[in-house]
Amino acid sequence: MKSFREVYCARRHCTPQTFEKRLFWRTLPWHARLLAPWFLLVSENHFLPEAGLIASAAEATSMAAIRAQLRDFYWQSNGSGWWHRVARVRISAQRFEKVARLYLPDFDPNAEQVSPVNTASHAEAAVSSAVPSAMETVDSEVIDSRRRELEDWEATLRRRELDLRERAAELQQRETRLERDRAAVRERERVLAESVARHEHDRRAIRGSLDRFADA
């Protein structure tokens, strides 16, 4: 009976060495794919349960063995911290089972009874090979692409911040000019009022002189 790895690679036309990498990325939820490169860079132990699951599932010959391994993975990942348990930055068990179902029968016809594989102990025994395989799931191109995206976002934020500062400076200058214009208008109003008052005083003085001349 062919193993999961053998059937998968035969149908997908890939090498056995790339099996872990392909299965890892194929069974990650979309939100976990965005965070996985960062976790693989800063914490190689974060995906240790996934490495053990994939290493064990590679030799499985039936869905019965896969389900047993997924049960072990479920309990192990629930004790692996907040990012695994709550944020679910981990392999999706539903996706994993759905993918495996495409390549494996429900039961191994050559075996009388399928014994569940303890992925926790298997992962501990295969740390030297499983962890590097998980680390290899991140292509340098993917990491570089994520890094370039972050750099582009940072550059965009810096440009927007600079634009906002320039606009704030322009608004401050406009407000200063407007305040000067208001002061100039008030000064003109004051001068105009004084001119009107002088003209009124002169008019009254002329009118008084004319009245006195007429009386004489």
Largest sheet: none
Number of beta-strand segments = 0
* Residue share in β-strands: under 5%
Alpha-beta classification:
mainly alpha
- Round the mean pLDDT to the nearest integer and report it: 79
Q: How much helicity do the residues have?
A: over 70%
What Rg, in angstroms, do the CA atoms define?
Answer: 40 Å
Low-confidence stretches: 112-120, 122-139
**SSE string, helix = H, strand = E?**
HHHHHHHHHH
Shape call: rod-shaped
The termini sit apart by 142 Å
Total helices: the number is 10
Quick summary:
The protein has 216 residues and is mostly helical. Helix content is 75%, strand content 0%. It has a domain at 4-137.
What does this molecule look like?
The protein has 216 residues and is mainly alpha-helical. It is rod-shaped and about 145 Å long. The protein has ten helices and no strands. Helix 4 (48-57) packs across helix 8 and helix 5 packs antiparallel against helix 7 (93-101).
